[in-house]
């Protein structure tokens, strides 16, 4: 487990809670993605997994099914890739996304099914949808976002493509990434921990500043 993920708040089972996962009544809502928290991560360029700022350079996502296949085809054909259909899935650090690909039930196995629906412009994923055979951890040189409810992202220019059938295929890469990562100079801010009112207050301040 990356050190930044290990420092995250835990649920009652001991599982680390993502920075973009909202809390209610003292419990994380893993099936939901918090608009306020995703907005904060986008504006402040923070990892959606650990909540720590991402340096300039590539950002990473875990992609599945049609998008993973499309990226693989673009690479094989020597074409530039850009996701024209915006996604609600926010990016993060390389090590954090390798870890997510291994431990997230939906991302880790081809026969896994989505636990909750997701809808946005250009995206419609129903509860129970299969992940599909194709999946990968992908680094992108370019990222842009559109602030709203939900926050939407577009990515372009593949910097790294690490395909997997099962998440465990990334174990060696994750171990290497953890062994070689530099210590972070800062921790996740309090408003991206388990205090949901703090996240909402910071979100409101950011909305006013970028309006």
Describe this structure in words.
The chain has helices spanning 3-6, 35-43, 65-77, 94-103, 105-108, 171-180, 196-210, and strands at 23-24, 27-28, 59-64, 118-120, 123-125, 135-146, 152-163. Strand 4 (118-120) and strand 5 (123-125) form a beta hairpin. Helices cover 31% and strands 19% of the residues. It is of the alpha+beta class and 211 residues long. The chain is built from seven helices and seven strands, in the order H-E-E-H-E-H-H-H-E-E-E-E-H-H. Helix 2 crosses helix 7 and helix 4 runs antiparallel to helix 6 (171-180). The chain is globular. A three-stranded antiparallel β-sheet has the order 3-6-7. It has a two-stranded antiparallel sheet with strand order 1-2. The chain has a two-stranded antiparallel ribbon with strand order 4-5. Mean pLDDT is 88; it is low at 114-126. The longest helix is centred in the last third of the chain and has 15 residues, at 196-210. It has one domain (3-210).
What structural class results from the helix and strand content? Answer: alpha+beta
Beta strand %: 15-25%
Helix and strand element order: HEEHEHHHEEEEHH
Gross geometry:
globular
Largest sheet: 3 strands, antiparallel
Give the number of DSSP strands.
7
Rg over CA atoms, rounded to whole Å, is 16 Å
Unreliable residue stretches = 114-126
Number of structurally distinct domains: 1
User: What is the overall number of helices?
Assistant: 7
Percent helix among the residues?
25-40%
Strand order of the largest sheet: 3-6-7
How far apart the termini lie comes to: 37 Å
What is the residue-mean pLDDT, rounded to a whole number? 88
